[in-house]
Amino acid sequence: MTLGIDTSGIGKKIFDLAAEIFPICRSITGTGVRETLGILGLHIPLEMREVPTGTKVFDWTVPKEWNIRDAYIKDTSGRRIVDFNDSNLHVVSYSRPLRATLPLSELRKHIHVLPDQPSLIPYRTSYYSETWGFCMADDQLRSLPDGNYEVLIDATLDDGHLSYGECVLQGESAEEILLSAHVCHPSLADDNCSGLAVLTMLAAALKDMPTHYTYRFLFAPGTIGAITWLALNENRASNIKGGLVVSCLGDGGGPTYKKSRRGDHYIDKVMAHVLEHFSPSGTVIEFSPYGYDERQYCSPGFNLPVGLLQRSQFGKFPEYHTSADNLDFIKPEHLDASFRILINAIEIIEHDRRYVNLFPKCEPQLGRRGLYNAIGGDKDAPSKNMAMLWLLNLSDGQHSLLDIANRAKIPFTMIRNTADLLVREGLLE
Length: 429
Ligand code: ZN
What we know:
The chain is α/β, with parallel strands linked by helices. It is built from twelve helices and 18 strands.
């Protein structure tokens, strides 16, 4: 890595961090978010922001704070047949507090199951309507006898705060690269403990490194968090040169890059290049106004150059938003690969520049300078020679190294290393 980042064992480190935050019951507000940010903040300089309930943020209002201590469904013998302590997915996120005894026929109206995946617990939320509910395996619901059930949701919905975390790594330039992950899902590993852990380890790797751009890492609850950040930072948004929302970075699918709304922005070119050369199984898909917080960053009033990086696409894998999105579903090697995609993208963003060929009239004599032979016997020699010829041909002050790499279909790293050689030889400046 030319950024000098030590990536040895990084997949395992990311996995361990994801595993540490996995059990926490997060939602769009509440102590679960704060606790998660507290753990991420042990690795990076993370500022926690607290925005009061009722704050107007564009067309939205910061909601009440939701906190939950316990929840269960007990049968007539007093046994907990559904227990929040076994899985926080059992309670619909943002459920209002409740203590009641109900017949199964009434209780059923508030129970969510997945008939097509009868052994899994679904993940459900009720953020903007005051209701309550439980989630359980369809197999279990079918096995319940009729009768009365005691139901408790020991939760509070009060005025409080929306919390988000921000880590800003100042570079030479005020221009920023935004890296954003949602922090509002409870025990779901791929969506999105993986994204939180990958970005935290990326920030940890970059934090002591001199960079040209400023890197802003944002860990905010989905939708309302990004809207809140944009509302409070409207004047900063124009500094964002490019950005990525990340999610689902630990599974074995993809990788997938969804373009920004602009579609042909610099970040889109960088990500297309990285996927083509470093992740041959990767695909690039067009923007759509559905997904994660790129929806907010790419809303027409901002139209920021922010795309979405995932491995498997959300909603398209069977584990998505179910209890099967657990720590068995994500793997260190996939987290490692996702980390490397981001590092490769940052390498390009940091080192891309335009050069001028100092010998533009006909080709300079490379053999005399020992440049053709400098790499004799090297299996990469033919592409290195091509890299040299492309660089000399296109370094007219108009084409950047990435433009040249794309035109030549040669990885950016090789183009960049060859450019360094030609600069040392006095052929480029
Ligand atoms: Zn989700």
